Amino acid sequence: MGGIGAAVNHSPGEALDLAGIFVFAVSGALLAVRKDFDLVGMLVLAGITALGGGVVRDLVLGAVPPVAFTDPGYLLVPVLATAVVFVAHAPLGRLGTPILVFDAAGLGLFCVAGAAKALAYGLGPVQAVALGTITAIGGGVARDVLANEVPAVLRAGSVFYAIPAVLGATLVVTAQHFHLYGSPAAAGAAGLVFALRVLALRFGWTAPRPRPPADTTDD
Amino acid sequence: MGGIGAAVNHSPGEALDLAGIFVFAVSGALLAVRKDFDLVGMLVLAGITALGGGVVRDLVLGAVPPVAFTDPGYLLVPVLATAVVFVAHAPLGRLGTPILVFDAAGLGLFCVAGAAKALAYGLGPVQAVALGTITAIGGGVARDVLANEVPAVLRAGSVFYAIPAVLGATLVVTAQHFHLYGSPAAAGAAGLVFALRVLALRFGWTAPRPRPPADTTDD
Amino acid sequence: MGGIGAAVNHSPGEALDLAGIFVFAVSGALLAVRKDFDLVGMLVLAGITALGGGVVRDLVLGAVPPVAFTDPGYLLVPVLATAVVFVAHAPLGRLGTPILVFDAAGLGLFCVAGAAKALAYGLGPVQAVALGTITAIGGGVARDVLANEVPAVLRAGSVFYAIPAVLGATLVVTAQHFHLYGSPAAAGAAGLVFALRVLALRFGWTAPRPRPPADTTDD
After folding, report:
1. Which of A53, B205, B206, C10 has the fewest CB atoms within 10 Å, i.e. is most exposed?
2. What is d(CA B145, CA C131) in angstroms, rounded to the nearest whole number?
3. How far is CA A75 from CA A16, A25, A51, A72, C74, in A?
4. CA pair distance A108, A132, nearest whole angstrom
5. pLDDT tens by residue, C72-101
6. Do B141 and C146 touch (CB under 8 A)?
7. What is the pTM of this model?
């Protein structure tokens, strides 16, 4: 648990964590600009996108106060991201692909950190996969709900996002089961999530969808 | 408390609990199909409808990790419900009434279990009624919020849903006050909620609404 | 900590707290009327507006059950507010300014109480400012989300609301740092938030907004 705690809190892993938070915050602040929100709206959307998933994870685990409220860096990074987007949203908004690539890195880091922390707190394997996935996608879902939009990750036709997170969290749980979990396994799982997400964006992979309810036209 | 804990966790009561979760999950997955969500959207909506109310209850009580994250059955049932809806949403969607009848059973089970657990954790009677009702209706509210719809339970003209839950939770609290709470009282309260909801559906009973703001037409 | 606990729980401060809850609950119930909700929808919106911010604060601090579930007054005040709005929403709705003035008082009380409680639980200064602000604006954000509207506090053009709360929480943290925090400082900070919000309403002060994405017209 020391290793995992360290990876989450005070180590080289923290820089990665803060990088993931920064990118998620940028995506929240950019959506706020698109929705014609003011500076407050940008801050709220940046903060909830970046920290929402981790706060839910920590509340579920009873790890209170959540890490977002114990380390000031976690709150200051969304402020910084908002400042950057405030002055540079036009070029950032045109950056499309680079933003998505950073976001894919955040996705990988968050699902791995979430699943590892869930295991460290004694959750079972199925629960750790679920909580890792919630950690990774929860912030984006909350962002879209606050912006009064249907969460992007839920819509048919949306490119693979939760599925790489599920796979990454499953890898963490499997590695832990065989006593192989450590920094290399964590990096490998996060890298795989990243690669899958980037490939999905490149090739337009989408999740299966139910057959459209064509028969409703009979009603 | 043993009896209540048992009813919530590892007993014949658990089968009922899982049945309620299954039906709530089906309602979430069916809404996802109607909203043109993909498999991920179906899973998320199924999970939050079935487990959202109970997770909020457990977080409020400090019963962490919430039971949804300690017993893998609680997570697997929404997965199963999603699989069933994925292949059979057309006939299920036509099932209208049977689904609503099962949902009424879930409503009764959840408000009773929620109020009983609140009392077992030392909450007062008013608080237990509130938390039992939140347990029963919270998942459906979260489902509608994620689907970017006004929660059905809040709208004028919607048939009695929260009110039977309030009554059921009140019965639990009253029985407890007179030291009469146990399996028969729990079953009776859940049965009454079920019956009230089914009758409300049959006869179109709706909650009172404020007089429409007719004077706004003057503006 | 005794003083703060007392101010939050059982003291003259409690009357102010309940007054803030009442006004927030009225704003929730009034929105429910405007959205054509029934009595259940009014109660839910009143309750979440009045208590949502404080419940989130207490969950984050690990102060469970949240004060909203330990003191029955906290639940009964929204019921009372709903009853008042149910019969008198037409004149109340025309009251525009008085309601906003009371709401400004609630804003001041909530951000101060939230920041003080966060400090009492050992949170750092940045975190206490964030949590105080969340306490003050969280209920209103949840109200708008449940009503399927874009949260008012996030929109460009909305009058100063979160910014006075941030300033009030910052004053609490500063006073605490210099060992000057107590009832006078709390009253002063809440009064300043109140005054700023009322002045903002009077003079139409709005938060900065990013330059509109004019270049999107090129797309």
Report:
1. C10
2. 24
3. 15, 10, 8, 5, 30
4. 10
5. 999 999 999 999 999 998 888 777 677 788
6. yes
7. 0.92
